[in-house]
Structure of Flagellar hook-basal body complex protein FliE:
Amino acid sequence: MDVKSSFVSQAYANARHAAAPQPKPGAADQGFARLAGNFVEALQEHERTARAAMTGNADPHALVQALASSQLAVETVATVRDRVVEAYQEILRMPV
């Protein structure tokens, strides 16, 4: 009986590894890096627009659009950060 249980446990272990999803290496890291890069590029573009408006090379309408867009980007990043922290805290509260 002991021999059968070891075969069963070995078969279960093999089946569990075969059925487990295989994550793509670095897929999540690349996604977050791409999002962070887009955020930084957007803020740099808005900063260039603000500088151009201060020197008189851009119209005030473009400045207002850049300020509104940068405010939206910062609020979005802050909201995502808050959700990630909230999820992390919820995981920490889970019973083991």
About this structure: The CA atoms of residues 17 and 49 lie 53 Å apart.
